[in-house]
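S.,

As promised, the magnesium ion run. Input:
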Amino acid sequence: MEIKIGIPVSPGVAIAPALVLDSESFRIPKRFIRKDEVEQETKRFEAARKKALSEISGIKEGIHSVVKEEVASIFGSHIMILNDPKLLEEIREKISAKRYTPEYAVSRVFRKVIKAFQEIQDAYFSQRVNDFYDIQKRLLRNLLGQKAENLSKLDRKVVIVAHDLSPSQTATLDKSMVVGFATDAGGATSHTAILANALGIPAVVGLGTLSQDISGGDVVVIDGKSGRVIVNPDDETRERYEERVKGFEERGKKLAATAAKAERTTKDGQRVTLYANVEFDEEVEYSVNMGAEGVGLFRTEFIYAKYGTHPSEEQHLETYAKAHKALGGKVLTLRTMDFGADKYAAEAGLDKEDNPFLGCRSIRLSLREPRLFTTQVRAILRAGLLGPTRMMLPMISGIEEFRQAKELIEGVKADLTREGIDFRKDMPVGMMVEVPSAAIAIDSFIEDAAFFSIGTNDLVQYTIAVDRNNQHVANLFRHTHPAVLRLIKGVIAAGRAANKPVSVCGEMASEARFALLLLGFGLREFSVGPQSIPELRTILSRLTVAEAEQLSEQVMKMGHCGDIDRVLQDAEEKFLPRAEFGE
Ligand code: PEP
Ligand code: MG
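Predicted complex:
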């Protein structure tokens, strides 16, 4: 049994065998072979090893003539490892005596060796670790060959373990079989966290080298509240966590039942609207079932994953039509594509930038590549005829950008009119407030933008200068930083004063304790991962606006994030006692 501590990003408890995705998405399940298959499987391993040897010899030969001897010697050591009698003996023994598949035997043995090397703090040995990774990959690639398993069709429940989940990996994953996520990298608002929250499954990120220390099939416990990940738990620990899984499921049911009966207002009758954040059209129906009153943020860049390329106008439209069908007349907020930085930069073939989060991402890319943007805008305008639809522009940093985008939208309208294609003429166009410059100068957008949605994931990142995906600075990513709170409060106040709808769609809104504070700032629209809706509905119906305002006044006099967190935690406990619903 091994215990690791990471950053908890989505609550709940899961227990299941690990499905390890490495950077090449190999899936190495713990599988056994029959006795009569031992000979044939051993031969398969030998064939994969010989192929690896000949591949390396080929590279080595090629290199010899053009670069120095030392480079070739790296491949020399790869050949030595592939011929190492002790290593080979161990792999063969795992196949013949333990009846492991060759893939699983290779991953087990290499994992042990790599771990031993990692424990030696020495530059030479850490270089050796890379050699072992390379060879393991080569062997697995040869072994799996055409047989690489299909991630979109899993036959049992799994916990996904990966270095970091890329949007395209998750797009193809059979999500109905995934009960938890654990990743080496990431922070509280990384893609893994967002996806886990959307699916309502536990996740822990920032686990360092977990994906290398674990083999497919190892049983993993994920505790999404404490950040604990337990590999191969002993019987007693496993039983204890199985009880907690049940407890968590019970909690969900009780909360859903309570929320279904709760008023859609605060205790003193102020209306509060709860929207859902979604990434795939399939999530819309689930969101409605969880009590969503519409979609407050559709991250449309994920349509890219579905089609593997920039979607056509018809493909966009088809997706929006499905969402509208599931919403049955509720509002659909379509955010135009937020490409770049952490989202599809590599897949979309974008130029590599030194500072992609500060580079040509999102609306900047849309304005640079107007054809991509206008294709989507045409579909959004047409989707407006299928149900209430709003268009939302991401990453706006200044009014010029917003106006430039609006001009393009007007151009699209003129084109559609000329072509005789019907569309929604008065579609509201709003913006995300997620860049500090937009939050500070919010008054400059008040006339032009139809609505505002505060993206706290990026707003926190840019305000505190802390990468939202970097586990090494995750402790600095604080929603309760006084600078962040002032910006949010200012935007809400400006929107309300001008009678423009304001929501918060960053992960902050989905946490009950922060929601209380946002209510006190004057927020009446929240857009959150669907599984958070019952909890928010319940807690927000239990306090008056005056109580929330009192809380926010208290917090705004404070300067220390930790102290603010404690005050908010106490308030949450007051209105939603842990004892009432369990965990
Ligand atoms: C945000 O930045 O808060 C947001 C909602 O957008 P995303 O997480 O997709 O960047
Ligand atoms: Mg954002």
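The chain has three domains: 2-22+150-246, 35-144, 262-581. The chain is about 50% helix and 15% strand.

- D.
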